[in-house]
Write a structure and sequence with these properties.
With 92 residues, the protein is mainly alpha-helical. It has one domain: F1F0 ATP synthase subunit C (F1FO ATP Synthase, Up-down Bundle). The protein has three helices and no strands. Helix 1 runs antiparallel to helix 2. Belongs to the ATPase C chain family.
């Protein structure tokens, strides 16, 4: 397999791991927030606010992983070097 195929596989693997991690984190956060509201309904406003901020931070991690994957696919800094190496290898 060539460099570009490996870039696609790495981006897909990275996005999968990033999505799994953030999904687990969001599930745990929501679960604990529901437990907190069940124990103390009077604090639901503060719990909801803190949960939303936490979920936004967790979601930002998934967005960072997505941006890195897009960079790896479309703006890969090693593309020119790899293309030159491939051309040099075919010309030899």
């Amino acid at each position: 397999m060539d460099f570009f195929t490996w870039s696609i596989i790495a981006a897909a693997f990275g996005m999968g791991i990033g999505s799994i991690g953030t999904g687990i984190g969001m599930g745990i956060a929501i679960s604990k927030a529901c437990e907190g509201v069940a124990r103390n309904p009077g604090a639901s406003g503060k719990i909801l606010t803190n949960m939303m901020v936490g979920l936004a931070l967790i979601e930002s991690l998934a967005i960072y992983v997505f941006v890195i994957c897009i960079i790896a696919l479309y703006a890969n800094p090693f593309t020119d070097t790899v293309v030159e190496l491939i051309r040099a290898g075919m010309g030899a």
